[in-house]
Amino acid sequence: MGAQYYGADSENGDRIDDPSEDALFMLISDLNGSDNTFVVVQPDEDDPVWFASVAVLDEGGYEIVRRDTTRNEHEVTTATGINDIARDLTVWMAARDIPGRPNRQVSAF
Q1: How many beta carbons lie within 10 A of that of residue 54, not counting itself?
Q2: In this predicted model, what pLDDT tens digit does every residue of 78-92 receive, in sequence order?
Q3: Left, alpha or beta for 64 (phi > 0: left; psi -120 to 50: alpha)?
């Protein structure tokens, strides 16, 4: 069974379906400069409209790319803190439109 909403795949073949913030932290922590240099998170569908990636930089730290074609978003940033990267990606992904995911309702109460 595949991911219900999205999956995270690293260069070395590791995959986590519907990763939590902790799972993203783990995948990013496992990155290195030789044979596992990036992680990509995207919907588990043929032609995803959004993705996020984290790649190891030669000079240290990470490059984070967030792209959402439905919202005309394309952001490239760098960071060094894995905790911050995992948290920011989790928040960003929670705001994406994902088919089949229940709509969040905001109440005025």
Answers
A1: 24
A2: 999 999 999 999 999
A3: beta
